[in-house]
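[Meeting: bench + compute handoff]

Bench side (C.D.) handed over the final construct sequence. Compute side (W.E.) agreed to return the predicted structure before the next meeting so the bench team could plan truncations. Sequence as handed over:
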Amino acid sequence: MRYTGYEQIWMFLIYSFLGWCLEVIYAAAGRKEFVNRGFLNGILCPVYGFAMVFMLVFMDSLKGTWFYLFLGCTIVGTVTELITGLALEKIFHLRLWNYSEKRFQAGGYICLTASLVWGVLGLLVVKFINPFFLIVIRKAPGIPGMALMVSSLVILAADTVTTTVVLLKIKNQNPAFAEIAEGFTQASKSLEGFIVKLVHRRVNRAFPSLEAKETEEEQQERICRETIFAYGCSFYKVFWIFMLGAFLGDLTETVFCRFSMGRWMSRSSVVYGTFSLVWGLGVAGITILLYRYRNREDRYIFLAGTLLGGAYEYICSVFTELAFGTVFWDYSKIPFNLGGRINLLFCFFWGIAAWVWMKLLYPKVSEWIEKMPKKTGTWVTYFTLAFMVGNVLLSGVALSRYSERANGIQAGNEMEAWIDERFPDERMERIYPSAKIRR
């Protein structure tokens, strides 16, 4: 089932509210008092909204299989919780939850019990709860429903901005954000007393471990970022890791197909160059998520890579099918597969690749990238970024027309006619030999 944007936004708001209710009840049961443990001040907990919308969109093909639906929801919920936890601690040094004392946990961000809860919640929502809400959304009056939705989004945006500014002011991590917070305060003295102090008081009550002083380690890291190109896990470092991963991933798959299938075939994701976006984004994502844990035990890196890689490949499969009507891989004939989109063997490959990358290759690659002159590296990065953005956009348009031509849709304007001329079916089949068109 495909949901409209209007329906997805409403589902996000509904499950964000229900998630907030669950968090309040859980906190009240443990602390015997009402505490808003959410990141925001309002009655929405976006991590639940995003997780449930992802489950509803990406798990639709698994509705008929209870076990695989449960497993898929478990993976999506766990990855969402992991990414949210890492992002909050990276930006704000803030831990909304900590599973360190639980068994079978990873970094305190995720644990087996919480993952199973995500699976059960997702199963209940997809099979039983969401059909009811979907009927309500579709039967609700259009104009009042749209007005209420827009009002809720505006309030959510204001709450997000206010909370973010105040938290960054408390942490004082970035002088630029400190100036924004100061400007926010000076803009309205009356609102400062009512909003900023209110948020400040709530945050300190909910998260008393926040400190404002910059540590010596943070100061040293800030100096290194100012003098060394692509220091640490910066944007420049991640971008060049993406480019290297995209190129080496394409090369690896091409060689693998040569020896496993007996012929050379393109494995590129774009029309110009030998780059596999799935591998590039996967390597970049693994680097971002596991950077601070790169010195942990081998089994930790392997398990994290297996889980994250499998979830990432599944999401990529659904996204490309929804966006372009094209299936780029199908594992239905391989044992232990999940809807033909991922399989256990290839998930283990992701785990092995994560270990090889973080333990063996990343230290050397990171050192090479940081040797680039700062000014030259910056300009080359933005030039290459512009090329890749244009390449990806052109590839998306070409794939869309390839799918439309297969379904008998003729070019409707000069641009589509130019695309048909430059990228006919023969050329597209050479670039994407494994692609299957959904008719």
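W.E. noted at the follow-up: The chain is about 70% helix and 5% strand. C.D. will use this when planning the next construct.
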